[in-house]
Amino acid sequence: MGILEVKGINKRFGGLQALGDVNLSVAENTVHAIIGPNGAGKSTLLNVLVGKLIPDSGSVMFDGQSVLGRKPHEINQMGISRVFQTPEIFSDLSVFENVLIPCFAKRDGSFRMHAIESVFSEKAIHQQAEEILADVNMLEKRHMIASSLSRGDKRRLEMAMCLVQDPRLLLLDEPTAGMARADTENTINLLKEIRTKRGITMAIIEHDMNVVFSLAERITVLAQGTPLVEDTPDNIKGHPKVREAYLGEAQV
Ligand SMILES: Nc1ncnc2c1ncn2[C@@H]1O[C@H](COP(=O)(O)OP(=O)(O)O)[C@@H](O)[C@H]1O
Ligand SMILES: [Mg+2]
């Protein structure tokens, strides 16, 4: 049994079957990549996992508890955090303030003023936020306003905002999308460090095969909303079905 068990998920948008009978098992303490061409259903699947979309049928269990029907912040409180395709940060706040925000969102599930004030003044939470910022090499930039950060640093900040919630499962939607080569390398190294230091299970959607093959231990290939193959990176490389699914897209 994996920490995340997805069974028989179907999701239609009008006449389009975005997900068709998706089964997926993510083992605890592994990095599991979900790859597939554009429109394969990867983001739709992630949206189901974090409660942003309700599937037409199927089940999603996290650590033995059903995820479906719960609100996004409840799923977050269960221990699932997500890094979005475009970093979701508070542009007008400092790096440090951005990291504090998920602390009260997790504790209280709301943005009530008393919760905000208590978290912003708590020493232990400040220490935790600083430790996480150090982990993602952003401590020196803690007073910078988030909008002034580079794309790579915004990604680091978003990662810190997830880590401060102490997740057991981190979902990453194309964490290197639109990054220059150097930032991509930095992100790969950052994820490896997080993995080693914190042992967080990760499910990662990614287009860049260099990222996938340097991070993942298991890979599921989605094509037209349905898993085509699930295997180790070595077995996925050069798999005829994978080549077929990627024809004219990525080089596998
Ligand atoms: N909210 C929506 N309404 C209608 N169609 C959608 C919606 N979201 C996604 N789709 C369609 O579902 C399919 C899968 O999309 P998506 O999950 O975004 O693919 P991927 O992330 O693999 O590129 C695509 O054909 C897309 O156009
Ligand atoms: Mg997508």
TrEMBL record:
This is Amino acid/amide ABC transporter ATP-binding protein 1 (HAAT family). PANTHER family: CONSERVED COMPONENT OF ABC TRANSPORTER FOR NATURAL AMINO ACIDS-RELATED (PTHR45772), HIGH-AFFINITY BRANCHED-CHAIN AMINO ACID TRANSPORT ATP-BINDING PROTEIN (PTHR45772:SF8). InterPro entries: AAA+_ATPase, ABC_AA/LPS_Transport, ABC_transporter-like_ATP-bd, BCA_ABC_TP_C, P-loop_NTPase. GO terms for cellular component: plasma membrane. Pfam families: ABC_tran, BCA_ABC_TP_C. Residues 4-249 form the ABC transporter domain. PROSITE patterns: ABC_TRANSPORTER_2. GO terms for molecular function: ATP binding; ATP hydrolysis activity. It comes from Yoonia sediminilitoris. CDD domains: ABC_Mj1267_LivG_branched. Keywords: ATP-binding, Nucleotide-binding, Transport.
